[in-house]
Structures are given as C-alpha cells and as structure tokens.
Amino acid sequence: MTRTSPDIRVAVSTVIFTLRPAAGGAALSLPLVRRTRDPFEGRWALPGGWLDPDEGLDAAAARTLAETTGLAPNYLEQLYAFGDVDRSPSRVVSIIYWALLRHDLVDQQRAAHAAAGTAPENVQWFDADSLPELAFDHNAIVDYALWRLRNKVGYSRIAHGLLPDEFTLADLREVYESILSRKLDPANFRRQVEATGTLIPTDRFRTGSHRPARLYRYDGAVELAARGPISTPDSTNRNEER
Amino acid sequence: MTRTSPDIRVAVSTVIFTLRPAAGGAALSLPLVRRTRDPFEGRWALPGGWLDPDEGLDAAAARTLAETTGLAPNYLEQLYAFGDVDRSPSRVVSIIYWALLRHDLVDQQRAAHAAAGTAPENVQWFDADSLPELAFDHNAIVDYALWRLRNKVGYSRIAHGLLPDEFTLADLREVYESILSRKLDPANFRRQVEATGTLIPTDRFRTGSHRPARLYRYDGAVELAARGPISTPDSTNRNEER
Predict the structure, then answer these.
(1) What are phi and psi of A12, to 5 degrees?
(2) What region holds the Nudix hydrolase domain (chains A, B) (predicted)?
(3) What pLDDT, in 10s, does the model give residues B174-197?
C-alpha cells in the first residue's frame, strides 16, 4: 500500500537535569528548546528529534540532545514511551529519556561551545518547578521524569549523577534536599548515607568560611542505578566507567 | 516524499506472567504464540501486534494480548521500548508491556473461551525458566520483564497481582519464592510482611490437611505498584479498582 507519509512516527526526546547553584540551596534545572515552527510554534519543548531508521534509541537520545543543546550527559536512561493518540496533531510515539549532568560539566560544555562558536540557538535553562506551558504533553513528561528521579534517589546512588567526583556530605545532602524539595536533618542524613556503604572518605577536605569538611567519593564498584539485563553500550555514563 | 512502507514501524507486545501451581512450589509461566510466517516462522514469540494509528499504547497492549491469547490481565504496565536497529529484518520499535494474571482467572478465561469456541490457536504456556529460543529479541525481553518483576516484588505489593483476593501467608510466601527462585524462612517472612502494614487479616481460615491457616487480604488503599503521575485509564488493574 502506498502511503505519502508514515501513519505513526517515532520521536526521541530527553529531560536532562542539572543542579543549578542558588542562594539557599541548589535548584533542579533543565534546558528547553523554543520551537520555530508549528505545531506549538514559539513554545518551549524538550530537546529531541525524529528517530533515524539506522540508529538505536539510546544513540538517538544522545544525538538529538547534543544537536539541539550541545550537551553530553553523564547519565542517560530510558524513561517511558508516551503514545496517547492526541498528544500531537499527527500520530507520534515519543520515546523519552531522562539524563543527569553535573553542573561543573554544564559550565565546561557551554564554555567549549562558546569558544568554538557552536553555542546552540533557541535554548534556555528553566527551573523544574517553574516551567511555562510547554509544547505537546511535555509538562506531563517532565513531571514523570521528576517523579522517577525522586523515587530513584531513595534507593540508588543516582545523586552521584549530579555531583563532582569528590563532594562533602553537605553537598550530597543538598542534592537530596533539592530533589525531594524538603530539608533533611544533617545528623540523620549522615547516619543513613554512611549506612549504605557506598561512600568512601578521602584524605582531602574542603576549606573555606566554615570548618573544613571532609571530601567523599562514591565507591566505583557500586552501580549508579541498577539497570538489569539491559546493556546499552551507547549510553553515556561516565561515572560508571570508573 | 512517497514511501511504499514506513521506515520505522511500531509494535506492541506483552510479557504476561501467571503462577502455575506445581509440585514443590508454583512456577512462573507465560503464554507464547507460534509465528506462522517469516521472519522466524515456526518460532515462539511474545503475544503482540502492530500499533494502530487510532489507538493508545496501553489499549494496543491489551488488545493484541486479547486477540492472540484471549487473556485479560489483572495488572498491566509499560516495561520498556526495545529499538535496536537489527532486532528485526525491517526496522521495528517494540513498546513492551508486562502483565500479571491470577491463575484462577487464567483457568476462568480459558474455560470461557473453550465454551464459546473461541480458544486461541498457536498459543502455548511455557515456564519462564525453560523457554526455547524465541523470535527476534524476545528472550532478552522476557529476561528484562523477569528482572523488573523480581525487583518490584521487593518494594511493592505487586505479588497481589498473582494471588486471589484472599490468601494465606504461605500462599504469599510461595509467590515470593517462585519469583525470587529461592526459599524464604517462614518466620522472617511473616515478620517482614506484617511490618509492611499492607495485609489485613480476615476472619476466615483455609482448612485442609494442615492446621487451619488464616486468610488475609491486601489493604485496598495501598497501590498495587506506584505509578507516579502516569494515569492510564485503559489499563486493566482490577485489583486497584477495589
């Protein structure tokens, strides 16, 4: 049967979070791209694009993210396939990924693009808790990604995806507080985190206006997040490569 | 651009588990459909079909499952989108669902189809731990579904999807033992399960060759499995409707 266009198209988009330093605690933040054509011209949308017939899903997520925002995440995982019939004027099934990028790497990558003259256009960072009305069902998609992140932080070392290689317990607690949107008791937090056995104290301290705070790192042998039998060789998980 | 066929097609398949009563403990079991055409003619495959342009993903999973096996699950959830470039001779992205069906309902549905003369063809049940080589990447898909089930049983009441409304603690323990493929200490299990606060003791007992065992039911207010902000009105979750 001859068709002038496919009945169902497949898109791939990514919700990529970083923790933006802010007064009074860090803020979960994500880049969005302003659409330059209908449908939803002028609205902000998740970075993404059409799946290429010769490309896997993970690769498509990484490629479309890089092409639209210039970013390469340190953690990337498939989230969910959104396929309601009327989420888009034509029928589109979107395979959604979520990702994490350490803020120091965000700065590094932005600086590299600025120096090379390859800074992406139409991209702006938004705090996750103050998004405008996005294109398509992208508000609902971000909600789901936030929910997944909040759940995952409770039983995995996913917080590592938002931290530098070495960090203080206060840094780690701030990540949890930002994700969970609530303050945590420092003593309880320290106890619980030390009980997980995933933190390795280093000999280094951060000095500054407060008393020196010990720097920790994650035990590299512990997986960032249990992935099960899915092996995704083209996922960018730099933290896991150590 | 005129195309004679879409570059990328979208399929939906379901891994549906039941717990088959067996000597020495129950066995996780799933129905497969024998393919009657290439690719992989003659091989067993997961029940599924092509996504219809006018149909949502959850509805497609339920429909293709019903059309090929005659079954209606009591729990249905999206698992993962499998989209490696060479998983199929032509490019197919498969949105995979996993499901649970209580064994008493399996028997009920099979009997209803037999009476109506609508028993499905080419369908056979297999134990999850002794599958033949399946079509496409369906062995890897079943592995991932098993992994998800095993993980989920540890932190949710997903076991309820495999049990009748009222059950003994031994019944519940047997579900966990079958899913986890190991024996559990009955006293420890009782303690842990009672600590979850999700079980309600009834006034009824099961009598038989052993001393009477109290029947329990799940607290209906507790969700079968945390779904987050994704509301899927066409998912069949009879247990959640109570």
Answers:
(1) -130, 130
(2) 7-150
(3) 999 999 999 999 999 999 988 888
Say whether A5 and B10 touch across the interface (CB within 8 A): no
pLDDT per position as a tens digit, A29-70: 999 999 999 999 999 999 999 999 999 999 999 999 999 999
Nearest residue, CB atoms, A6 vs list B6, B78, B84: B6
Residue B14 contacts residue B96 (beta carbons within 8 Å)? yes
Query: What ipTM does this complex have?
Result: 0.88
Residues of A in contact with B83 (CB under 8 A): 10, 51, 56-57, 95
CATH 3.10.560.10, applies to A157-226: no
Residue of A nearest to B6 (CA): A6
Coil, helix or strand for B8?
A: coil
**pLDDT grade for A224, boundaries at 50, 70 and 90:** low
Residues 6+ apart with CB under 8 A from A138: A13, A44, A45, A46
Tell me the CA distances in angstroms from A82 to A77, A190, B15, B79, one per residue in order. Answer: 15, 38, 19, 12
The DSSP bridge partners found for residue A216 are: A167, A201
What band does A223 get if pLDDT is binned at 50, 70 and 90? low
CA distance B28 to B16: 10
- List the Cα angle B177/B179/B185 in 5-degree steps: 20
The helix (H) or strand (E) run that includes residue A54 is: none
Q: What is the CA radius of gyration of chain A?
A: 19
Are A57 and B147 inside 8 Å of each other by CB? no
Residue ranges of domains in chain A: 1-152, 157-226
pLDDT bracket for residue B3 (50, 70, 90): very low
Q: In this predicted structure, what is the pLDDT of residue B23?
A: 82
Q: How far apart are the C-alpha atoms of B96 and B12, rounded to whole Å? A: 6
Assign domain A1-152 to its CATH superfamily.
Nucleoside Triphosphate Pyrophosphohydrolase (3.90.79.10)
